[in-house]
Amino acid sequence: MVIDAIFKALADPTRLRIARLLSTMELAVGELAHVLGQSQPRVSRHVGILCDAGLAERRREGSWVFLRSASGAQDNASILAALDRMLATAERENEEFATTCEDDRRKLAAIREARATAAEDYFARHAEEWDELRALHSPDAMVERELAAELGDLPLGIMLDIGTGTGRMAELFADRAEHVVALDKNLEMLRVARAKLQHLPSSRTELVQGDFTDLPFAAARFDTVLFHQVLHYAPNPRLPLKEAARVTRAGGRIAIVDFAAHDRDELRERHQHARLGFTDSQMQQLLQGAGFAPRDPIALEGGELVVKIWIATRQTLPAKGGERISPPAKRVASS
After folding, report:
1. Which tens digits make up the pLDDT trace of 241-251?
2. 24, 70, 137, 197: least surrounded by Cβ within 10 Å?
3. What are phi and psi of 250, to 5 degrees?
4. What is the pLDDT of residues 142-151, one digit of tens each?
5. In angstroms, rounded to a whole number, what is the distance separating the alpha carbons of residues 147 and 140?
6. DSSP letter, residue 194
7. Above pLDDT 90, what percent of the chain?
8. Is the pTM of this model over 0.85?
9. Bridge-partner residues for 65, per DSSP?
10. Secondary structure of residue 63 in the 3-state scheme
11. Which stretches does DSSP call E strand in 6-147?
12. CA distance 161 to 254
């Protein structure tokens, strides 16, 4: 990060407004253009200057491009934090800039409302099929409570929520994590998650489009990795678990919430389940094969389908394949 490039980038009223807006929430280029009252090409030029200076980051989702404040490497984090404080001070002490920022935030309210409306429409279209599936297993509140208990009171550090769906898990654990990255392959689900998470500080959450068999992250980036009702969509679960192991730091944890093995074959067609749950021995072999040391699982009764929670710790070196593994002891949570 070059200091003179930073100050040149901020030497423009529009780019100051963009920097202040991005400190509030992640925004698409079109959303920024709406708030600023400028054309998308013009806004894109300003965004390019901020990105080149290391003050903002672009991320593509389908045909949309989203912007967020730069996260920064460790040696740049203090500079970025200082710039954010400087802009906050400028808003407090400069009446004209404060008025402009307040007007911009009023327009953000309309964007938040539009996102929420789109999310409600999506839920309305899929409510029947989701209600049908929920009726088969333990109540969501019970699963969330037990998952939080299984993860314990230790900080979650940098957390990856794979297959975030509605963003509920990212929302649930945002207060306990240093930073939550919520990943999903489905663009429409990311729109829903964005609406759900938009009340959280943009510095705490990040939404990313990606496939769980080819995660777009550097090795050993995360302290905690979560698969919540996701792994049964994988025809070959070894692939997403191998990727999860790659991005998990040694000593980090993986948490998998999924169904115990069952025979409801209609879920393959009605809900695109590639796997009809997992036995404990299957899951233990999968985890050990990927380089995790699993704990005893917990079973959540209370429905026709039993929900299981498997927690495991990332080993320094992956476990050797082909080892014979004894079935783990079982613990049951009462409803």
Report:
1. 999 999 999 99
2. 24
3. -55, 130
4. 999 999 999 9
5. 11
6. H
7. 64
8. no
9. 60
10. coil
11. 27-28, 56-61, 64-69
12. 10
